[in-house]
Inverse folding.
């Protein structure tokens, strides 16, 4: 799998492969020493699983952003990864363009969730939820495209603080817990 990823990513001039690891302790040690902008991380690593690696990255306040690349498609794994600090969740079955798009989105400060997983965040009961305003829908669509609050504010001619407030309202109205869930919701609703 790692050789295949390296081959795919070697075709993209803006991506540089710094190293690889077959287990969690080595992945964490390499992340500490190489300090990559983006780490591609599987959840099922021996020695120290992907969630433990993400928890250490967060605890140590490393600036590396994490793209989970895994076969796990269950809601618990997706939610756990996002809560432990993953910035993207991509399936091993996704095509190369989707993986590269996720890497660039994360490197630019955004989030990404595989289109195949967007339905994981669909809530059972949406009838009694407060509808989103047109401005909130505009912002949700831009978050879904991986834009950060600052860029959204520039594009819409509003402050970054106002964008963040709208994002808080969106999350409250939809019952979402983080930006990655908002990305998934936006994809699911084709924004």
């Amino acid at each position: 799998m790692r050789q295949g990823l390296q081959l795919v990513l070697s075709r993209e001039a803006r991506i540089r492969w710094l190293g690889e690891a077959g287990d969690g302790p080595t992945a964490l040690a390499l992340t500490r020493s190489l300090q990559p902008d983006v780490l591609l991380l599987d959840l099922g690593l021996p020695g120290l699983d992907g969630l433990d690696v993400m928890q250490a990255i967060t605890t140590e306040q490393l600036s590396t952003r994490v793209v989970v690349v895994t076969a796990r498609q269950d809601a618990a794994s997706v939610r756990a990864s996002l809560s432990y600090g993953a910035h993207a969740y991509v399936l091993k079955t996704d095509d190369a363009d989707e993986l590269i798009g996720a890497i660039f989105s994360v490197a630019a400060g955004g989030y990404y969730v595989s289109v195949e997983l967007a339905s994981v965040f669909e809530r059972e009961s949406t009838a009694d939820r407060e509808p989103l305003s047109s401005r909130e829908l505009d912002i949700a669509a831009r978050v879904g495209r991986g834009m950060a609050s600052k860029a959204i504010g520039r594009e819409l001619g509003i402050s970054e603080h106002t964008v963040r407030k709208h994002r808080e309202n969106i999350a409250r109205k939809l019952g979402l817990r983080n930006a990655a869930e908002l990305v998934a919701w936006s994809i699911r609703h084709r924004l």
